[in-house]
Amino acid sequence: MIRLTFLLRRRPGMSLQEFQSYWLETHGPLVAGEARHLKMLRYVQVHTLDEPVNQGPWGTRGQMEPPYDGVAEAWWESRGDLVAAVESAEGQAAGAKLVEDERRFIDLANSPLWLNYEYPQVNPAPEDIVAGPRSSIVKLYFPLRHLPGQSLDEAQLYWRTQHGPLIRSQASAMRALRYIQVHRFEDEIEAGLRAARGTTVEPYTGHAELWFDRNETGSPSPERREAAKRAEEDERKFIDFGRSTMWFAKEHVFVDRR
């Protein structure tokens, strides 16, 4: 299974509410209607919460990049399915229709996208934890860029084999319900998707996703504070905080054919 991550910034002059309303009520149903033509397995909108906590700073990480207004996420069973969709007449027509509508509310030049593989770290079965709009669960979205001097492969290897086990070992203290690493991989399809949208912002190394229940995140215990400290200290070994960002969000599931 492969996944598309599409970080969204709204068009100048739109409020966050206007942007998210159009995305949810108009664009979302449009994507869902074209999902089979695009061979899409799953489509989720991740809406950034309009809350002061999302403006940072984020502990000892300092001031990071501003949060995006949301994320469009799409999954395919395989790269072959995505290629077939991109190359088919139906898929190309559907893709052109979606890009045309995206221009009405998305600042496409400043909205990076890339393809990923998932590496679940804390993943209870069944995989049905969702930060729904009426749920007490929230999703922490953490797009990250690696440090200068590291290659993409070096940073992702450390993230997957060293940082991942650290977070797994203290997930209970952190009150994390689920933790997924989503690693970018370089692919020619990405270039075509970016060109169609005139994207200028460079993609990220990947992103981390953590789900929390707000009913369980009151005053942090000493164990939770210590776990957070260890996580931040280890992040410094591979994350460039000044070129990374994070925020809390809610999820809206439009398509799920898994």
Helix content: 25-40%
Order of strands, widest sheet: 1-3-2-8-5-7-6-4
Mean pLDDT: 95
- What would the principal axes of the Cα set say about the shape? globular
Number of alpha- plus pi-helical segments: 7
- Class, according to the CATH hierarchy? Alpha Beta
User: How far is the first residue's CA from the last residue's CA?
Assistant: 10 Å
- Helix/strand order, N-terminal first: EHEEHHEEHHEHEHE
SSE class: alpha+beta
Overall structural domain count? 1
Count the strands? 8
What can be said about the biggest beta sheet?
Answer: 8 strands, antiparallel, barrel
CATH topology: Alpha-Beta Plaits
Query: Rg, please?
Result: 18 Å
From the coordinates shown, what is the CATH architecture? 2-Layer Sandwich
Describe the structure.
The chain has 258 residues and is α+β, with helices and mostly antiparallel strands. It has seven helices and eight strands, in the order βαββααββααβαβαβ. It has an eight-stranded antiparallel beta barrel with strand order 1-3-2-8-5-7-6-4, surrounded by four helices. Helix 1 runs antiparallel to helix 3 (89-102) and helix 4 packs antiparallel against helix 7. 36% of the residues are buried. The model has no long low-confidence stretch (mean pLDDT 95).
